[in-house]
Amino acid sequence: MRITYLTLFPEMYENFMHTSIVGRAREKGIVAMDCVQIRDFAHDKYRHVDDTPFGGGAGMVMKCQPVLDALDSVRTPDSHVILMAAGGRKFDQQCAHEFASYEHLVILCGHYEGLDARIEKHVDECVSIGDYVLTGGELASMVISDAVVRLLDGAIRRDSADDESYENGLLEYPQYTQPADYNGDKVPDIMLSGHHENIRKWRLLQSLLKTRELRPDLFAAHELSKEEKKLLEEYDKTQE
Questions:
Q1: 3-state SS class at 162
Q2: Residue 77 carries which DSSP code?
Q3: Tens digit of pLDDT per residue, the chain (240 long)?
Q4: pTM beyond 0.85
Q5: What Cα–Cα distance (Å) separates residue 165 from each residue in 156, 169, 196?
Q6: Is residue 182 within a helix (H) or strand (E), and if so which, with residue range?
Q7: Where are the alpha helices (DSSP H) in 28-156?
Q8: Any long-range contacts for 225-228 (C-beta under 8 Å, 24+ apart)?
Q9: Closest by alpha carbon to 22, among 43, 42, 5?
Q10: Which of 30, 113, 185, 210 could bond to 59 as cystine, CB 3.0-4.6 Å?
């Protein structure tokens, strides 16, 4: 897979591309990443990429010409182009899986007060990582990239990815490590039992309970299996 960033600040990606899972995935050839400086496509000698908005208003707006010329320089028939935008589709794990299936993901990062609205006609979709405002799309593009790269074959162990939050519509169960007793705060006995089937059921129940409490929206959308219904019913009876 290849991920291309169209940005005014390519230096923001230097550490990201060489760190942790993303860095290892690049070293293994699982993903390639490159940055395109939008300013390189400006025609005037001062390399202006923005201008004041028609109708007035605060701030500057990125112009069509340099942005779209930069996009044209990298776009291929295999490219899927997304624009980081506050009003875009909300990014989630399902979205990450979809993006991981593309051969070439192009992420266009706006800045200043945004981009000329006509640019949206030239992208495949607009995407948002949440209901808040960032200075530019670069940080959001890294969030998306990290979530996507984790899903690529060979980036991390498959069983690790399968157990993570949101993969089965539930939040992940709690995890523990040594020591078993930390200042009187003990690991649940079942985790020390060595009984793998009981541990599996306990973890599933914890995922269900955690999701029901913290993310009722996810819980309501999750179709409970017979086993899950039974685990919850048995637990709820103990709480009566």
A1: helix
A2: T
A3: 999 999 999 999 999 999 999 999 999 999 999 999 999 999 888 889 999 988 887 789 999 999 999 999 999 999 999 999 988 999 999 999 999 999 999 999 998 778 999 999 999 999 999 998 899 999 999 999 999 999 999 999 766 555 555 678 899 999 999 999 999 999 999 999 999 999 999 999 999 999 999 999 999 999 999 999 999 999 999 998
A4: no
A5: 15, 7, 20
A6: strand 181-182
A7: 64-74, 93-100, 138-149
A8: 227/201, 228/204
A9: 5
A10: 113
Asked whether 192 and 65 are in contact (CB, 8 A), the reply is: no
Residue ranges of domains in the chain, CATH in brackets:
2-158 (3.40.1280.10), 181-238 (1.10.1270.20)
Task: Identify the residue whose tokens are 């690790």.
Answer: 160
Dihedral angle of Cα 203, 130, 154, 194, to the nearest 10 degrees: -10
